[in-house]
Amino acid sequence: MTNIKLKELIVEKGLMIIAILSVIIILLIIGFILIEGMPAIEHIGFFNFLFGMEWEPKHDIYGVLPMIIGTLEMMAISLIIAIPLSVGCAIFITEYANNTMKKILKPTIQSLAGIPSVIYGFFGLVVLVPFIREHFGGTGFSLIAAAIILAIMILPTIISVTEDAIMAVPGSFKEASLGLGATKWQTIYKLIIPSAAPGIITAIILGMGRAIGETMAVIMVAGNVAQIPGSIFEPVRVLTSNIAIEMGYAIDLHYNALFATGIILLIVIMILIAIADYIGYKSKMQGSGDL
């Protein structure tokens, strides 16, 4: 008995140490970004940096507002495309697909998550960009091209987590609904989806994080022009792309400004996650009240 308790204590303390180390590593990363980025914010001014409309390193002009708007627009469009497809696919897999179809769909969806982002970028560069150029005008390198590629990339994440959330709904709920005379579709959209809403929102948060943090594929198809796009067919530059493109040759204030861009990116991500968590909490509480 003593040996068992000792093993349990070791496992418990080991997991606690791992959790603490994870928090420390995250804090160290955030601290490093703050240390490297604050000189630029102090020199430029936080509001001048945040609301500045121009990014011209040659003239020491740094404003990230066009890139913030571009990032949010790209993320929003990609989620608008991906969420209905992902939730619909998850519902089909869990509620309608037979075993043979599940054996085909699940590995296919999982394999999409393992494809390197540069491959998605090549697909967008060779197929999507020329298609947009020929049918909608412009260069083809655009906000919508980046958003479509991102939507494809985040599909596996949202589908997998949404599928798990739907599977976690007790079978007795479905049986009771069907027993009361509800159709299968009524059971799905009036009972299963509301019950699985917290898990679905978690899936959307994970997809949102992937969309905001993606760099390589976006660089290849977005056009990378630091401007507020007037339409979805105009080029755009996002915060992550800005850092990746210019970090290789940045020095002095320019170098610090790129780290300051990272600070803004952290703030944007934290705000969006907080909003999504709040929505998920409200949905969970509302679902509990309905039940």
TrEMBL record:
| Transmembrane spans | 15-41, 61-93, 113-132, 138-159, 191-212, 257-279
* GO terms under biological process: phosphate ion transmembrane transport
Location in the cell reads: Cell membrane
Specify whether NAD is a keyword of the entry. Answer: no
Q: What SUPFAM superfamilies does UniProt report for this protein, alphabetically? A: MetI-like
Q: Which InterPro entries match?
A: MetI-like, MetI-like_sf, Phosphate_PstA, Phosphate_PstC, Phosphate_Transport_Permease
Q: Which residues form a coiled coil?
A: none
Give the Pfam families listed for this entry.
BPD_transp_1 (PF00528)
Limits of the ABC transmembrane type-1 domain: 68-276
Which keywords does UniProt give here? Cell membrane, Membrane, Phosphate transport, Transmembrane, Transmembrane helix, Transport
User: Is Transmembrane helix tagged as a keyword?
Assistant: yes
Which GO MF terms does the UniProt record name? phosphate transmembrane transporter activity
Report one GO cellular component. plasma membrane
**Membrane topology for this entry?**
Multi-pass membrane protein
Q: Which family does it belong to?
A: Belongs to the binding-protein-dependent transport system permease family. CysTW subfamily.
Which protein, by its recorded name, is this?
Phosphate ABC transporter permease subunit PstC
